[in-house]
Design goal:
The complex is a heterodimer of chains A (about 325) and B (about 260). Chain A has helices at about 1-30, 35-40, 45-55, 60-75, 85-120, 125-140, 145-155, 180-185, 190-230, 230-240, 245-265, 265-280, 285-295, 300-325. With about 325 residues, chain A is an all-alpha fold. The longest helix of chain A is centred in the middle third of the chain and has 38 residues, at about 190-230. Chain A is globular and about 85 Å long. Classes of the chains: A mainly alpha (about 325), B mainly alpha (about 260). At the A-B interface, α1, α6, α7, α12 and α13 of A face α3, α4, α7, α8 and α9 of B.
């Protein structure tokens, strides 16, 4: 296992290097002058020169690269051009918001997608199977942001009237300790704020969960159908086990391993979906931070968000690989 | 063709027809006397905050959507397929090229596209470039797999024995045999491109407001969830149907054209 671990971590380096390089080259790849791109056409020469100095563009390329590498190792991404705050501090605020949203969404996706997939697999060709399959195909074509808007309209504006802007009502004051709103409201002992935070999580989490749930549902359905056709299921039936026991104790665990892997690999879809979902629901997470940085051409913020998001994505993928290898010894052996 | 394939063909055909039809209809003009009207006999889908007819704007948007689906997919194919074919048929270059491809895949697609827009600046052309770049590794991987699958087959060995050059073998002998699978991939990628372009322009990165792109129309409608919810329905349904059409058609083409899947059927 130790050898597998070192091999997998070593395999991360080209990707990390690529991301770091992209972060460095970003400012230099901007067509024309990056300072002018940020300040606009009517900027004075003095302002342009000052901004170039702040971005470090007035040094030779080698000096810039060396300085960038040093700051990257220390986790220092400079200060945001727009808010004049250190980017790493801002990231510390927005990353927990996304972690909270993504974790709840992934949990919802697993709780919805897997049981529905099993239900569809147990009665192939039935109305329920067709319905579930149709919804899961549609789930791959539905624009996430449109789903968010429709849920806002159906469950926010009408229906139960769920809140759909931000993590907490603005008039509430909660001391941030963990950065996770659900945990912080509990730590503050404010039950009402906790309920508010929970209610505000419902719509964004449902929106973000939809695509991964659809994928998991499709995957579970096909894996369960394969498992149900295996000889060990026939053997379990022949021994007179109850249908529920055959399904849950014999077929389901075997179908589950690849499904859980793909659940972990949904991290990418969650991260991409987060940029859209967070914008729809004014959720102050890393996706929205990234979009704002792109819109304002705030290069230090963009660099920081890129490196943080890529790092998170690669780490989650590594964890999924390790969990899979722990579950299945065949993976650990080198090919 | 399967039933879902026929549905896909119908939907993709409808999108193309709408795009062609839009050439014969003038762009809707602002009419400040009929601002934010709900659907009526005169305006079937209602009007927006400048009094423009939503149906007419959707029709104009179809042209943009089809164009913005084809362009990125074509860019991705033009760059990705040569790289993949070379990678799959040259054992010497393959490890390096594959590593490069993995770096492109190290980021989720939408994230990479966002960063590219951050570099190039906002605008529909920039968005199309970004989405095209994101689809490069997809074509790259698939055409590499095709080249590996076909490597060592007689129709590739024969020209080599005859002394035909490597590039010529790639273009005249390998590419035609890889085309069916890649064509199916390109169709499915058009669906993905529609979704990504719409997402980026929903985020307000598609340049000037007022362009009848379906994603940015939804971005504008977001501020009118209370006052004019009908602005949400049209663009969203059109988007979902267009993506569904290209995706289903791509799946059906793959089932029909991909020899690997035919063997298992």
């Amino acid at each position: 296992m130790a050898r597998f671990l070192t091999r997998r971590i070593a395999a991360l380096f080209p990707s990390l290097l690529g991301v770091a390089l992209l972060g460095f080259l970003m400012v230099h790849l901007v067509p024309g002058d990056p300072a002018r791109a940020y300040l606009g056409e009517r900027a004075t020469p003095q302002a342009l020169a000052a901004l170039r100095a702040r971005l470090g563009l007035d040094h030779p390329l080698a000096v810039q690269a060396w300085g960038y590498a040093g700051r990257l190792v220390r986790g220092d991404f400079g200060t945001s051009l727009r808010t004049l705050q250190p980017v790493s501090e801002e990231l510390g605020r927005v990353v927990p918001a996304t972690i909270e949203l993504a974790a709840v969404a992934l949990l919802l996706a697993v709780l919805l997608g897997i049981p529905l997939g099993v239900a569809a697999a147990l009665k192939p060709g039935s109305g329920m199977d067709l319905g579930i399959s149709a919804v899961s195909v549609l789930g791959l074509a539905l624009p996430v942001f449109w789903l968010g808007l429709m849920l806002t309209w159906a469950l926010g504006v009408h229906g139960p009237g769920l809140p759909f802007d931000g993590r907490l009502a603005p008039e509430r004051e909660i001391p941030m300790k963990t950065g996770l709103m659900l945990a912080d409201t509990l730590l503050a002992g404010d039950g009402e704020a906790f309920r508010d935070a929970l209610a505000r999580l419902v719509l964004p989490a449902l929106t973000l969960a939809f695509v991964p749930a659809a994928m998991l549902c499709r995957m579970t359905r096909s894996q369960m159908r394969e498992a149900m056709a295996e000889p060990y299921v026939l053997a379990a039936r022949a021994r007179g086990l109850s249908p529920a026991r055959v399904v849950w104790a014999h077929a389901f665990p075997n179908a589950l391993v690849p499904v859980l892997t793909s659940a972990g690999l949904q991290a990418g879809a969650l991260l991409g979906g987060a940029a859209l979902t967070e914008t729809v629901f004014s959720w102050p997470g890393i996706g929205r931070y990234l979009v704002e940085a792109v819109r304002n051409r705030d290069f230090p913020a963009l660099q920081g968000a890129l490196v943080a998001a890529a790092l998170a994505f690669l780490l989650v993928n590594l964890l999924v690989d390790l969990a899979y290898a722990a579950a299945d010894p065949r993976i650990r052996r080198p090919a | 063709m399967s039933r879902s394939g026929r549905i896909g063909l119908g939907l993709a055909g409808a999108a193309l027809t709408a795009a062609l039809l839009s050439l014969f209809f003038p762009a809707p003009v602002p009419d400040l006397l009929s601002v934010l009207e709900p659907p009526s006999r005169q305006h079937w889908l209602g009007t927006d905050d400048l009094g423009r007819d939503l149906l007419a704007r959707l029709l104009q948007g179809a042209r943009l959507t089809v164009l913005l689906a084809c362009l990125p997919a074509a860019c991705g194919a033009l760059v990705g397929i040569p790289l993949g074919l070379v990678s799959g048929s040259s054992p010497r270059l393959d490890p390096w090229l594959t590593r490069l491809c993995d770096v492109l895949l190290a980021l989720p697609a939408l994230l990479l596209a966002l960063v590219v827009v951050g570099i190039l600046g906002t605008g529909l052309t920039q968005v199309a470039c970004a989405v095209g770049l994101v689809s490069v590794p997809v074509f790259w991987r698939q055409s590499r797999a095709e080249a590996l699958r076909l490597s060592g087959r007689e129709f590739l060995l024969a020209p080599r024995v005859l002394g035909v050059g490597g590039v010529r073998i790639l273009i005249r002998h390998l590419l035609p045999n890889a085309t069916p699978a890649l064509l199916a991939l390109a169709t499915a990628q058009m669906g993905a491109a529609v979704l990504e372009v719409a997402g980026l322009s929903f985020l307000g990165l598609g340049g000037e407001p007022g362009v009848p792109e379906w994603g940015s129309m939804l971005g504008e409608a977001r501020n009118q969830v209370y006052s004019a919810p009908w602005l949400l329905f049209g663009p969203g349904v059109c988007l979902a149907l267009a993506v569904l059409g290209f995706t289903l058609l791509g799946d059906a083409l793959r089932e029909r054209l991909d020899p690997r899947l035919q063997a298992t059927r």
